[in-house]
Amino acid sequence: MMVTRGALKAEAKTRLNHNFPYFLVLFSPLFLLSLVSWVTQNHFVHHLSTWLRPDRMMWRGSDNFYAHGMYGYNYRHLYGSQMANSPWDHFTSGVSSLLMLATLFMLVGIMFVLIDIIRRNQFPDQPLKQSFRILMNGQYFIGTLLIYILRNLFLILWSLLLFFPAVIKFYSYSQAYFIYRDGIDRGEDVTYLEAITRSRHLMQGHKGDLFVLHLSFMGWFILAGLTCGLLLIWLWPYFRLTLANFYVKLTAEKEDETSTSETPTADPSTSTAD
After folding, report:
1. What is the largest CA-CA distance in the chain?
2. How far apart are CA 247 and CA 224, in angstroms?
3. Is there a contact between 230 and 191 (Cβ–Cβ < 8 Å)?
4. In terms of CB atoms within 10 Å, which of 104, 178, 212, 272 comes out highest?
5. Which of 154, 159, 41 is nearest to 103 (CA)?
6. Coil, strand, or helix at residue 175?
7. The pTM of the whole model exceeds 0.85
């Protein structure tokens, strides 16, 4: 890329620091949803849900009775496998999966907003409403869902070969959501597979750039862990603004290359002297 990694990050950081309250409101539903999703998968909450599980409430009389049963019979041995696969376990697992999917959808929608902010250099009104951009357009929602399914299907198939091809394809397909949204906004009849294909073409020669850009945030995320996640309030918008900036600059660069190659050049043989 003609724009350096440092320039991408510096521009994102400047925009974030000058408009932090806006981005805080924009990302607040995502923070809340991510927190709820994390809590449902938390180890302690899992034990709490197991303790409150309906199929175990009948043994709650005493731990000794549950462990040894009446006349010393071990009910844990008798019912352990059924309890481990109870409807309650399936329910909590299903809720966690739905929350993770909802987090992904909201994140993609917020990325759409960030891309528009960078391109237009202006901020849409009502940032809290903009957090749900993915739900404001049925084509955005359906397209994101189907691209998500196809993308993960392809990645699973690639991972059956080796790990590294799957990683390479992960970066190849990384811009498909944004390419599809841009096509829809321009009135193009973009298919889901075509969006993935365009992403592969766009990322040719730039997969390493994005990989290194991701790695450059590793120290920040380690530091966020040391602050018990509090730094994520600032870091997550910074990270996502940088990725949106990467897409905007890369697509602009590709468009410039295309327009330059399509510009007709003058034929010297047809020129006449004055």
Report:
1. 115
2. 25
3. no
4. 178
5. 41
6. coil
7. no
Structure tokens of 162?
Answer: 């080796």
Q: How does pLDDT run across 99-132, given as a tens digit for each residue?
A: 888 899 999 999 999 999 999 988 999 999 999 9
Structure tokens at 10: 């510096």
Please write the tens of the pLDDT for every residue from 192-209: 999 999 999 999 999 999
| Residue 69 pLDDT > 60 | no
- Sign of the four-CA dihedral 54, 58, 62, 64: negative
DSSP state of 230: T
Looking up tokens 């759409």 gives 112
Element (H, E) at 160: none
Residue 97 to residues 36, 37, 51, 87: CA-CA distances in angstroms?
Answer: 12, 8, 21, 15
What region does 72 belong to: left with phi over 0, alpha with psi -120 to 50, or beta?
left
Residue whose tokens read 């109870």: 86
